[in-house]
Structure formats: C-alpha cells, structure tokens
Fold this protein.
Amino acid sequence: MYLKTMLQVSSRVSIPLQEIQLQAIRSQGAGGQNVNKVSTAVHLFFDIRASSLPEVYKARLLSMKDRRISPAGIVIIKSQEARTQETNREKALGRLKELIKETMQVRKSRRATAPTRGSKERRLQAKDTRSKTKKFRRRPGLDD
C-alpha cells in the first residue's frame, strides 16, 4: 500500500500530511450495529496559522467567511458519507484541497447596471394598467 506524505493542492503548493490532524469518530444516524461499533467517520483539523502554506493563502483563508473555519483559524471538516474510514479520510482531504483552491480563485467584480429606458416605460405602463383595473372595480360615483 502506497502512503502519501503530501497533499498536493496545486502544481506549486503542497501541504505535508503532518500538518493535518485526522481523528476517527463514530458516524451519526442509522446504520445498525456497524455504526455503534466502528469509528468510520473522520474529523480533519488543519491549523492555518501554523501551516507551511504561502502567506497569501493563509491571509485569504483567514479572511474567508466559512463555517468550516473557526475563529482561531482552524479548518474543521467532518466526513461521514462513506462506510469505510479510508474513503471518508480521502473525501475530507479532498474537501480541504478544494477549500484552499477556492480561496485563490479571483472572482469577477460585479458592475452595477441601470435599468433601460424600455424597461422603465414597461414598468410604468404596467402600473398604469393595474391602477385602471383597480379604479374600475370601485363603486361608481366615488370620484377622487
């Protein structure tokens, strides 16, 4: 069996597995005797500040608004979908990798746009039509 020593995030960035703490826990939910006996779920802990990631990655990760990142700067990921501990371990590591990759994607800034002249006219026309419809429903003789 081949054991990896690094989690490859990108072509230039990798994390030594010593910096990632994995803890086996019991899974939640239905599953019969297997759930009660075997610790197949995995908790992953990754300390951003103490890691060997480049400073740019650290800063962006710490500034993210993500529920998986604690105020202390520790990424906590729980994986319990699979029935085996090894599969859950791989899924947790994959999620950590995706989270780190996501931080380095530059999002296109949104430009505010003004409504077109035609859309303004259509909106006013619809308001006028609705107003007339309601006006005709009133009892006759009650002029404004």
About this structure: The helical segments are 33-37, 55-63, 85-103, 117-137. The CA atoms of residues 3 and 88 lie 16 Å apart. The first strand starts at residue 6 and ends at 8. The mean pLDDT is 86.
